[in-house]
């Protein structure tokens, strides 16, 4: 019965041409995160190990696999901004992931405009239609079942201000399908977009 199922223990390898893990846990929303270091140098980078974890207060989080500039900046300042990555901004988002020294400003690299935030020091991406200003609440270093630390940090932050382009509010309701969200899937290059054709509704049982 299980001959039709490919089973593996990740610690022993997947035995496939590509690791299916992040193709399965996907497509994922992208945490396109802007930060500043203590001296005010700007940074922008995408993190697809990203999601929302709480409603009230709203808390979002992302995982830095390795200690990267974004993590270091948040450790130093406690602040970050999440910017919605859309189909129109996909190329710029991708350019902002270049592994460049901390002093290189990815806003300039990707041709994006910094827009001052209201509650935190890192700027928003002016071209992005939705942004969250966030203050870091916890930074957790992950560990395996054996208790050994892995070099990955989960950064959690409370959303202290939300900015939404009014064109995306239809009778006051946020238009997810109209916003052109992009989502990261597996492999070196796979992304998805969502539009009205993917929408279906199910109500919870009462
Ligand atoms: C779509 C996309 C998603 C990514 N997701 C992650 C992620 O979840 N965690 C991570 O550590 N790096 C991720 N990366 C790679 C980082 O963006 C890259 O290492 C970047 O240089 C980090 O920038 P920083 O050092 O300025 O923070 C992703 C890259 C792309 C293009």
Automatic annotation (TrEMBL):
It comes from the Bacteria. Pfam families: Flavin_Reduct (PF01613). Residues 25-176 form the Flavin reductase like domain. Coiled coil: none annotated. GO terms for molecular function: FMN binding; oxidoreductase activity, acting on the CH-NH group of donors, NAD or NADP as acceptor. InterPro entries: Flavin_Rdtase-like_dom, Split_barrel_FMN-bd. Gene3D superfamilies: Electron Transport, Fmn-binding Protein, Chain A. PANTHER family: BLR2425 PROTEIN, FLAVIN REDUCTASE LIKE DOMAIN-CONTAINING PROTEIN. This is NADH-FMN oxidoreductase RutF, flavin reductase (DIM6/NTAB) family. It comes from Acidovorax soli.
